[in-house]
Amino acid sequence: MPIDDEPVLGRTFDPGDLSEGSLDDRIRRLVASQPYAVLCTAGREQPYGSLVAFAFADDLCTAVFATPVSTRKYKLLTENQKVALLVDNRPEHPGRMMEVEAVTATGRSVEITAGPDLDRYAQLLVARHPHLKAFVAADSCALFRMTITRFFHVSRFQEVKQWVPGSP
Fold first, then answer.
1. Which has more pLDDT, 2 or 122?
2. In-domain check, residue 60
3. E strands within the chain?
4. How many CB atoms lie within 10 A of CB 12?
5. Residues 14, 153 contacting (CB under 8 angstroms)
6. What is the CATH classification number for the domain harbouring 116?
7. How many domains does the chain have?
8. How far is residue 166's CA from residue 160's CA, in Å, rounded to a whole number?
9. Does 8 map to a domain?
10. How far apart are CA 37 and CA 123, in angstroms?
């Protein structure tokens, strides 16, 4: 799969010491442990961040989230498919910044409007967030599928590693 987001500038990402598990396992644990993420979108001249409940598919190639159609978030998502999703575990490590991990998933999002994909991804999101069942089923709600291009994993405040889903 070609990488279609901005290239990494100035350095390559060495997996380095992964004594705490493989990078994809570390990413999987992090996104599984946190229920919410910051969705990053962009307007014509202004970036925006929005809190979303999310779920990832088992292969980490896809994420899903929902939003009301009457929001700026929805408008931005329909105008520009390029998005990023930031997940971190700050609440688990108050006052211990060197123990915080974060991952930014970059990719493209599309609204799922009908068919088996709508049911499948709605079930994925609701299985993780049962309290969202009525919200996700409402006509005023839109479901978005994000196809992940790559992950940037940050640990110890400045150690950055890159992982592309489907790569070794």
1. 122
2. yes
3. 36-42, 47-56, 62-68, 82-88, 102-112, 141-155, 159-163
4. 6
5. no
6. 2.30.110.10
7. 1
8. 19
9. no
10. 19
- Residue type for 162, please? Q
Pair 123, 131: CB distance under 8 Å: no
pLDDT in tens, 100-145: 788 999 999 999 998 889 999 999 999 999 999 999 999 999 999 9
Residues 6+ away with beta carbon under 8 Å from 38:
49, 50, 51, 52, 85, 86
Distances in whole angstroms, Cα of residue 151 to Cα of each of 67, 113, 123, 154: 23, 26, 24, 10
Containing domain of residue 33, as a range? 23-163
Q: Which two tokens stand for residue 25?
A: 């396992």
> In this structure, what token pair is assigned to residue 30?
């992090």
Q: What is the pTM of this model?
A: 0.85
Within-domain flag for 61: yes
Is 17 contained in some domain? no
Partner residues linked to 105 by β-bridges: 85, 151
> How far from chain centre, in Å, is Cα 115?
23
Distance CA 42, CA 78 (A): 11
Running DSSP on this structure, what letter comes out for residue 45? S
- DSSP, residue by residue, 55-70: EE-TTSSEEEEEEETT
Burial of 80 (0-12, 13-18, 19+ CB in 10 A): middle
